[in-house]
Amino acid sequence: MKRYLPFVIIAAVALLTVGAGAILYRAKQRAVAGGGVTRPSTSETGAEPLHVRGQPGAPVTLEEFGDFECPSCAATAQVIGKLEHDYGPRLRVVWRNFPLAMHAFALEAALAAEAAGLQGRFWEMHDLLYRNQAVWSKASNVRAFFNMYARSLGLDVERFAKDSASEEVKARVVSDGQHGVSRGVRNTPTIFINDREVRASFSPERLHEVIDAALAERTPKAFGADSGLPPAKIQPGEGRK
Amino acid sequence: MTRPRLQTVFYTIAALIALIGLADSAYLTVMHLTGEDVLCGSGDCSVVLGSVYAAVRGIPTAAFGALAYFAVFSSALLAAFGYTRARIFLTLVVAVMFGVTLWLLYVQAFVLHAFCPFCLLSAALTFFLAGIVVATPSTTLEQSEGESSH
User: Fold this and answer.
1) Three-state DSSP class for A38?
2) Is the pTM of this model over 0.90?
3) Ranges assigned E (strand) in A6-111
4) A interface mutation test: which of B11, B45, B46 has the most A CBs within 10 A?
5) Which of B34, B50, B51 sits opposite A25 (nearest CB)?
6) Which of the listed CATH numbers 3.30.390.30, 3.90.170.10, 3.40.30.10, 3.40.50.300 matches domain A51-226?
């Protein structure tokens, strides 16, 4: 019997490890999955309320369809940040999700940003995702990075993780995507300035030119009357500080 | 203590250490597969365990660790029961683990600039195992020499 004892112990340890691992795996998966699955709703106008940064009555609205994993979107985010600084209250920025299928983690990143938005920190997460794009886009476990970012923003991480997997958040992203397709968006970044798509490059000079032309065309009153955008509802804490 | 008895004690300790390492790496494997955030005080776990170094071709690095610890446990146990070939296998596996551990420590310190306590525990266990593997023959040799001189 002693001859077989080590093999019996080895087999017992193997079974115990696999069994315990399987139990832990199932328990954790249940915790991550959360509630039941329902079909996400869609909207012709995209997700509402909008993610807006800037004054509601600004004469120029820059609307971006972006993908958090797209490198040119990250570069454009920097340009847009500078434009916001340059134009101040005359420019408002609207963000729309348009995660491309070619990017493995773009959808997860969009969900993370939307989940942060439910706690009033969409733009902070938006900025963090773009700033750290080179890091998390190469990660094998992006969710861990997003949770870390959520923690660094002072979010309730448990709620954030649950929201990231929720149908409500997924519906927002899907809705934005469908809205983009209906407006002819195929790539990211796609930028509309006062509902007109900006073609060619998104260099600071080019965007300055288009915004200046839009400013010359419009007054704050006229903008509010005929913009195709739904009225902005700025979520608490969403304004740029 | 006689030489075979001392060897049995050393290999049993090695098997017990390997069990701790197996539990540690199995836990990290499960957390990686579920995408759960491994919580540790500093928050550096997310940086390390979410990095490109945490998986090889989609397989969690921790899973390789779990396999290695299981191999160490099995061979140490067999060695404790007197299977001499198991000692050679144990030495080989621990040598490979030692090298990989050094590389992973380098990655944490100089590439990621973050340390994960679970990975550090694994590194400590591997160093212990390496110490035991190195010490076992020499200790028993000295012991046997000591015994023969009396």
Assistant:
1) coil
2) no
3) 51-53, 60-66, 91-97
4) B46
5) B34
6) 3.40.30.10
